[in-house]
Amino acid sequence: MLNGVDLPARRALAEQIREDSWEAQLSIGVQAHPEPGARCRVDTEPMRLGSTRVARSFSVHQSRGTGAADASPSCLDPVGSLLVALGASVADSVAASLTGEGCHLTLLKVLPVVETGGDGGRSRLSYALHIEGEVSPEEARRAALAARERSSGHRTLEEPNEIRVVVQTARDEHLTARPVPADPAPFTGALRRAAEVAWEVGAHVIAEVDGVRVESDQPKQLFGADLAPNAQEYVLSALAAEALRFAAPADADGATGAAGVASGASAGAGDGGPAAADAVHASGRIDLRGPYSAQDAQVGLRNILVQLLPADPSAGDGSAAAAMRGWLTEGHALRLVRDAHPIHVELVLNGTPIAR
């Protein structure tokens, strides 16, 4: 297979989902659990591809902070996870497009960047797309356009998303994070975060953010080697980890902070057993007719739902819902997914920038 991309299988899937829209629906979920310090473990759950169950058994270890200063030297933070998701998804789309053109790739790198304004509220996204190999400028331009139109990571972060939140207590609280219109004032970046996402083969990439190296890949049902979480799982991991930071903050020694205790995070400690802890579940859906066929269907992650699962769901003091309202106001990763962010793309072919 050229570039490790199975074009006949991709075309067969495109034909199948054109005929049966139910088989195009991919449901994805993850669940975040606190770990000592300001860290958490996010476990992927089995996907549902139409009527098919797709096993997924990966764990993403994350800092619950939202910036490079908060990140652990051994794991991503939520914003870093979003940069990985963007780069991995774009690389997958570009590799498939160039393979369809019959191009042999020797190098493909995506360099995603997020800049945050001085007010901490607004952000700007971009990426540089570096392509090397037997590729013409026109083929490179078409690949960049394919990524803009058919990359689920690009479209998820470029388009607005309504995010629903449920706090599962004795009386469930339902909250909604609605997109905020763009501020027309000039943007001045104060903080810059960058990642490097290097394509290996097929849908497999190796990414580095702030010195942390991680992998991303698709399941075999989506033409990957099933080596690591995919881009959408990294998006959901970012949201789950950041929400958990607000629901169950931890101090430097790993003790659960006041919000976690109030919502029952210390339950069970009195009898000598391990302390119970809050968890956060995040899920979403993709219509594969968007990224995998030419049909007019949404491409990005949709129906995003974040559920706070308090350790003591009978607690009725309102602290869990208050913590989630704080996340909806202050969460950086949440704002990146919720609000529209026009993404600037720079294209470099065989070391030479080319106009798109």
The CATH first-level class comes to Alpha Beta
How confident is the prediction overall: mean pLDDT? 88
| Overall domain count | 1
- Poorly predicted parts: 251-275
Give the proportion of residues in helices: 25-40%
- The radius of gyration computed from the alpha-carbon positions, rounded to a whole number of angstroms, is 20 Å
Give me the number of helical elements: 9
CATH architecture: 2-Layer Sandwich
* Secondary-structure element series: HEEEEEHEEHHEEEEEHHEHEHHEE
Briefly note the structural class of the backbone: alpha+beta
Shape: globular
Core attributes:
356 residues; alpha+beta; GMP Synthetase, Chain A, domain 3; 29% helix; KH_dom-like_a/b; OsmC family peroxiredoxin; OsmC/Ohrsf
Describe the fold and architecture:
- With 356 residues, the chain is an alpha+beta fold.
- Helices cover 29% and strands 32% of the residues.
- The chain contains 9 helices and 16 strands.
- The protein has helices at 7-19, 78-100, 137-150, 152-158, 231-247, 258-262, 289-292, 319-330, 332-338, and strands at residues 25-35, 39-44, 47-49, 52-54, 59-63, 105-117, 123-133, 163-167, 173-177, 189-201, 204-209, 212-216, 279-287, 302-309, 343-349, 352-354.
- The strands form 2 sheets. Strands 1, 2, 3, 4, 5, 8, 9, 13 and 14 form a 9-stranded mixed β-sheet that branches. Strands 12-11-10-6-7-15-16 form a 7-stranded mixed β-sheet.
- The protein starts with 6 loop residues before the first helix and ends with a strand.
- 49% of the residues are buried.
